[in-house]
Write a structure and sequence with these properties.
The structure holds 3 protein chains of 3 kinds. Chain A is α/β, with parallel strands linked by helices. Chain A is built from 22 helices and 19 strands. In chain A, the strands form 4 sheets. Chain A has a 6-stranded mixed beta sheet, sandwiched between helices. Chain A has a 6-stranded mixed beta sheet with strand order 15-16-17-13-18-19, sandwiched between helices. In chain A, strand 7, helix 6 and strand 8 form a beta-alpha-beta unit. In chain B, strands 1-2 form a two-stranded parallel ribbon. The chains are: A alpha/beta, B mainly alpha, C mainly alpha. Chains in contact: A-B, A-C, B-C. Strand 4 of chain A pairs parallel with strand 1 of chain B.
Chain lengths: 572, 298, 369
């Protein structure tokens, strides 16, 4: 199904019966796509990894198939230009593109030069360039860092610079592939606010793909669903699409559950609709979330993690200050805080890397399962604590999955085949001969997890595990983490993903400037926090419900339906 | 897996420029060996190396500009990016070998990179890697143009070697690595050799002497001075290629495949570009005629 | 700012021109006094106009390299004693190398005259290196790359990429080594570096593909507005220049070529090649963001470089004795008028060049009061 262009606004992007097949692929990645995107809209493209979402985005400026190879039948018209006749470089004045991992697309060495690069290629006069760079610096709040080398920027700054660099040539279309996946909630909101300003004030057409619907749906004018597996692409207004799609942000799920009409897309709308629901909840308590019962083994007596006045200094800056923690087996702990708050440093100290960074000095005690990880090496370390770094590909260094797993067995002195068996449980679709570097982000994570889990460490640390993961993979990860906790593992997640935390964590620790500023059961910490609260908590505040399933569990959907403002419709 | 070079090829004009500059480069290196007594270079043997050191950067610039000229489609974004990244790898490897008996691991990158990218991009890779490394370390001196040209030849040579696959290819590259790094050392001794005056006559440059006399003196000079540096380098390069050659070649070729170097985006069933867009129509023709980048079928 | 002038970066090309002039001057003489003064001039200017940046430290490296060359030169002199002079100061036992080394002897008598020759010779190389070191320290490589001619744009981009990627690779290497530790493997030592190298290379190559896509999407390699005729002219000039250079080079190294085939031909070839670069550079549609201006200070610095080279060349013509200090018997070095004037002029950039902006790369600009 597709929609016709709104009266008055002409379609700036037109896909006419487009089918795209990559070389050496048996089936097309996109088939029979008819789509028109009107000028000045913010269009959200949704789909799971490998569904053809990125292909759709990249075909807007002709990167597919000019850059990637492959065959495109039908035609793509962008601002009246056929991409068959215009390679990406010739469309650079119309389409600005920000690809995944913006840091890898930087050409220049400082912020200002990077902003100017695209304009230099287009031959824009120097005076105009100068003016636009200044404007863009202000628009995106980059003027403080204008002469900084790009290498020294934080993830949020890099993302904003990449957007700015795509904006300076004044394209009428901006295409972004997962612009907020690496950002903490605050930085993500800044970026999305900037995008919304472009759409509203400058009438730029924005097409963006994003897995974290809860962050974006409320800003979208249109949603395009790319289901993959050869099924037709669907599109519609957010409320149309959100009423049907199996994947929806919590606020929409809550709305569907209760039967609110029109379906609220933002927390604000939902709060207005939820007055009745909140009244209903008075006197109920959310289901108590407990950590899995401590195992019966001897391990249960000792805390899985204990740190005592842990302090880490990088030169003059204090990355961690007097952190004293204790964690029991079976707990799922979310470590939160903005980028640079010390989350990764704490994880590094917990695996004994605190002293090993360049110029870092660690003091205080760390005990994992009663042992100091810094004194452990090789199999002993693997059997005690495992860390999956935020780029899981760092762990992978062999040519095939089979080799990688064999190396894992050797590293941990495990029985041959152990790692492969764990991987078969986590990701049955992966086969021996695949190259680890050819896997998707989510598959790499699962492979790295298998390598770490094979030695059955009582403590498992995950750094940003949901970055770039689609909903199905994330659901798999959530189940996996719960199973591990139930089996007596202590799992620590450093994450920005508030919905993941609401879903799975039993305890939340918030870090700021290296200090613990909050530590307690998930609901206690996140409900009151504007940045860390999940959508359901924001809608139902001051009631401490965190997820839709909690609401369902404690009150039951039948009761809810009778109290909904409009009811009678069957909810799928 | 094919052993064919995967990056774009140089246009004919670029090859002529590279060939002429290489020819002048050979003279700039080797004139002490054959220049006769009456020639100007011999008459001013203490100035000639400096003159060539001034001339070479200019000529290299011309050769690089011709080789990289965008209008011939020689250096598209893919080639620039991969050359830049490989040059960065070479730069990062260079300090590792600094000062330790000539163990310069950068040669494996230049040789394998030249092998995968082909002779044209190999030439660019060699020159650019040494230049970037000179700039990064603040080591821009009169030796730099000679180093750039030498490294460009080494990487280009790897791309010109016959097409073999599997072990035969690794063996061939390992042998080439030994020969090339020894040859590079010998060659780089030549440019400043005329400046090293007051050596005993058996190892000194004798202006205007018979080519054989000077050649032997140069070989003896190398034997006495830099061979202790060159041989470990050649051995290291060979060993590195034998050990790491296969995975690195595979990684480079995978990257080239991933970037679909030389691939052709095909458009089928797209109707004719509207007639009111002369720019577009013209550019279709250009693509077809000039660089055969895409086939637009109607 | 001490001089009451606006702080800005001097065009890196001007620094290089000045340094090359200084190097050319050094190559004209073996007078130790003049050579020492050239090094002093270079050091003075470097100290007065060197910015705070890692590359700016390379002057010291070049000075040490110069010292090393003097030392090697002296050692070579001692090892292969040549029969210059009569004042023997050391008599080493001699060792004759095998026949196939054509009777090279190691050791023997060492004379003060031969040592002086070696010293002056080494000093000259050291002075030339000092001039290069000054250029390396004063001219920012990033700015130098910004001002490459348009025809060399693609090459310039790959050099910039290489230079910005290198520190990122070093960071990657550290990260991957930590990841090896997480797998229970050795994370230090040569084996660990070797093991970490492959993931780093794979990561870098992956990024190069992403980078290429981003560059393509941002307009890298757009067709210029060049007319085919212009492009043909540039190509023709290029070919003519290269052929002329080839002929000229042949003229330089051949005994029976007429004189016009030597330097003049090379000069013509170089001119044509430069013209071709300039011409093909004009066919591009690209523009430049905030290019470094070439103003009066640049002309001044360039002039200083030319002046010192010219003064030394003229002095070498007029009074060769003062430029080449005698060693047999040893004489005191002379200080001629012409070289002195040249050296004074060479100090000019210390005043002519505008003050450098206060470490602009490190500190963000703070709002004006």
């Amino acid at each position: 199904m597709s929609w016709a262009a709104d009266a008055g606004s002409r379609p700036i992007i037109r896909f006419e019966d487009v089918t795209i097949t990559y070389p050496q692929a048996a089936t097309p990645v996109l088939a029979g796509l008819d789509l028109q995107i009107p000028e000045g809209e913010l269009v959200l493209v949704v789909g799971r990894t490998g569904s053809g979402k990125s292909t759709l985005l990249r075909s807007i400026n002709g990167l597919v198939p000019h850059f990637t190879g492959g065959t495109l039948t039908g035609r793509v018209l962008v601002d009246g230009r056929d991409t068959a006749a215009h390679p990406p470089r010739e469309l650079a004045d119309v389409v600005g593109v920000v690809l995944q991992d913006p840091g890898s697309g930087f050409v220049a060495d400082t912020v200002e030069e990077e902003l100017a690069y695209g304009m230099e290629c287009l031959g824009i006069p120097p005076e105009v360039m100068r003016r636009r760079v200044e404007e863009t610096l202000d628009l995106l709040g980059l003027s403080e860092i204008r002469s900084r080398p790009l290498l020294t920027l934080s993830a949020g700054q890099r993302q904003r610079v990449a957007i700015g660099a795509a904006l300076t040539p004044h394209p009428s279309i901006l295409v972004l592939d997962e612009p907020t996946s690496a950002l903490d909630p605050g930085a993500a909101e800044e970026v999305l606010a900037a995008l919304q300003r472009l759409v509203h004030d400058l009438s730029v057409t924005v097409v963006l793909a994003e897995h974290r619907l809860e962050r974006v749906v409320q800003y979208a004018d249109r949603i395009v669903i790319v289901p993959g597996d050869g099924q037709p692409v669907r599109s519609g207004t957010p409320s149309q699409v959100m009423a049907q799609t199996p994947i929806a942000p919590p606020v929409v799920e809550l709305g569907r559950l209760v039967g609110w009409q029109p379906l609220p897309l933002s927390v604000r709308d939902a709060r207005r609709a939820a007055i009745g629901l909140r009244d209903l909840l008075v006197g109920h308590a959310p289901p108590v979330r407990t950590s899995a019962a401590p195992g019966t083994g001897t391990r249960a007596a000792a805390p899985a993690i204990r740190t005592d006045r842990l302090t880490v200094l990088f030169g003059a800056t204090m990355a961690l200050a007097d952190v004293s923690l204790e964690a029991a087996p079976g707990q799922i702990i979310a470590l939160m805080g903005r980028n640079g708050a010390g989350k990764s440093t704490l994880l590094a100290s917990l695996v004994g890397l605190g002293q090993r960074g360049r110029g870092s000095v660690q003091s205080g005690n760390v005990r994992i399962d009663g042992r100091d990880p810094a004194l452990l090496r090789g199999p002993g370390l693997l059997a005690t604590v495992g860390l999956v770094p935020c780029d899981p590909a760092d762990l992978l260094e062999h040519g095939t999955i089979a080799e990688e797993c064999r190396a894992g067995d050797r590293d941990g002195h495990l029985d041959p085949g152990t790692t492969r068996a764990v991987l078969a449980l986590l990701a049955p679709e992966l086969t021996d001969g695949m190259h680890p570097r050819d896997l998707s982000e989510g598959q790499r994570l699962l492979l790295a997890l298998a390598l770490v889990l094979a030695a059955r460490p009582p403590v498992l640390l995950l750094d940003e595990p949901t970055r770039g993961l689609d909903y199905p993979t994330k659901a798999r990860l959530v189940d996996l983490v719960r199973d591990l906790a139930a089996a007596g593992h202590c799992v620590v997640l450093a994450t920005h993903d508030v919905e993941l935390v609401a879903e799975v964590a039993t305890r939340v620790i918030v870090l700021a400037d290296g200090e613990v500023v909050a530590d307690g059961p998930t609901a206690d910490v996140v409900v009151a926090s504007p940045m860390l609260a999940p959508q359901v908590a924001k809608v139902l505040a001051p009631h401490p419900w965190l997820t839709v399933s909690d609401v369902t569990a404690s009150i039951g959907s039948l009761l809810l339906r009778t109290h909904a403002p409009t009811s009678g419709e069957e909810i799928p | 897996m094919t052993a064919a070079p995967l990056a774009s090829r140089l246009a004919g004009r670029a090859w002529i420029a590279v060939a002429i500059v290489s020819g002048i480069g050979i003279v700039a290196f080797a004139w002490p060996l054959f220049a006769p007594a009456g020639s100007m270079a011999v008459a001013h043997a203490d100035v000639a190396p400096w003159l060539f050191a001034l001339l070479m950067p200019l000529l290299l610039a011309v050769a690089l500009a011709a080789a990289a000229d965008g209008s011939d489609g020689a250096l598209d974004a893919k080639a620039v990016a991969i050359i830049g990244v490989l040059a960065a790898v070479a730069c990062a490897l260079r300090p590792l070998g600094g000062g330790t008996a000539g163990l310069e691991p950068i040669w494996i990158i230049l040789i394998l990179g030249g092998r995968v990218l082909g002779p044209g991009c190999g030439f660019l890779l060699g020159a650019i890697a040494l230049f970037a490394s000179g700039l990064l370390t603040g080591g821009v001196g009169p030796w730099l143009p000679y180093q750039m040209l030498g490294a460009a030849w080494v990487a280009m040579g790897a791309g010109l070697l016959p097409r073999l696959t599997g072990r035969a290819e690794i063996g061939m590259l390992a042998c080439y690595g030994a020969v090339a790094s020894l040859g590079y050392g010998l060659l780089l001794n030549l440019w400043f050799w005329p400046l090293a005056t007051a050596l005993p006559s058996a190892i000194a440059y004798q202006p205007g002497a018979e080519p054989l006399v000077n050649t032997l003196a140069w070989l003896r000079f190398t034997l006495l001075t830099s061979l202790g540096y060159d041989i470990p380098r050649a051995v290291l390069t060979t060993i590195l290629i034998l050990i790491a050659g296969k995975p690195i070649l595979a990684a480079l070729r995978r990257a080239a495949r991933r970037a679909s170097f030389g691939s052709v985006g095909t458009f089928q069933g797209s109707r004719q570009t509207p007639a009111h867009q002369p720019v577009a129509a013209e550019s279709v023709g250009r693509h077809d005629a000039d660089d055969d980048l895409m086939r637009v079928t109607t | 700012m001490s001089h009451g002038r606006r702080a800005r970066w001097l065009h890196p090309g001007a620094w290089w021109a000045w340094a090359l002039g200084l190097a050319a001057a050094a190559s004209q003489t073996t007078n130790p006094l003049l050579l020492a003064l050239i090094i002093a001039v270079a050091a003075t200017v470097v100290v007065s106009r060197r910015p705070q940046a890692p590359w700016a430290r390379s002057f010291g490296f070049f000075l040490r390299l110069g010292l090393l060359i003097i030392a090697i030169r002296l050692i070579v002199q001692v090892a292969f004693s040549a029969s210059v002079g009569t004042t023997v100061i050391l008599d080493l036992p001699g060792v004759a190398l095998p026949d196939w080394m054509a009777g090279v002897r190691i050791g023997g008598q060492v004379t003060i005259e031969s040592l002086l020759i070696a010293l002056y010779d080494g000093l000259r190389l050291a002075a030339i290196l000092a001039a290069f070191g000054a250029a390396n320290s004063l001219a920012s490589p990033a700015r130098l790359l910004k001002s490459v001619p348009a025809a060399l744009y693609e090459v310039g981009v790959s050099v910039v990429l290489a230079m910005t990627f290198t520190p990122a690779l070093v960071t990657d290497l550290g990260r991957v080594q930590q990841a090896r530790y997480l797998r229970g493997r050795a994370s230090t030592g040569p084996r660990a570096v070797a093991g970490a190298a492959m993931p780093v290379l794979e990561g870098a190559l992956e990024r190069s593909v992403a980078l290429a896509a981003a560059m393509d999407a941002r307009g890298y390699g757009r067709r210029g507005t060049a007319s085919p005729r212009r492009a043909r002219t540039a190509a023709g000039l290029l070919l003519a220049g290269l052929v002329a250079c080839a002929i000229g080079t042949y003229g330089l190294v051949s005994a029976d070529a007429p004189g016009v085939l030597g330097l003049p031909m090379v000069g013509f070839g170089v001119t044509a090649a430069i013209a071709s670069l300039a011409w093909s550079g004009r066919t591009t549609a690209r523009t430049r963001y905030r290019p470094d201006p070439w103003g009066r200070p640049e002309w001044g610095v360039l002039g200083c470089g030319i002046a010192v080279a010219f003064a030394f060349a003229a002095a070498a013509r007029i009074s060769p004795d003062s430029m080449h200090t005698a060693v047999d018997p040893p004489a005191w070095p002379a200080l001629g008028l012409l070289p002195s004037i040249g050296l004074l002029l060479a100090l000019g950039p210390g005043l002519l060049a505008p003050p450098i902006p206060g470490s602009a790369t490190a500190v963000p600009r703070i709002g004006r009061r």
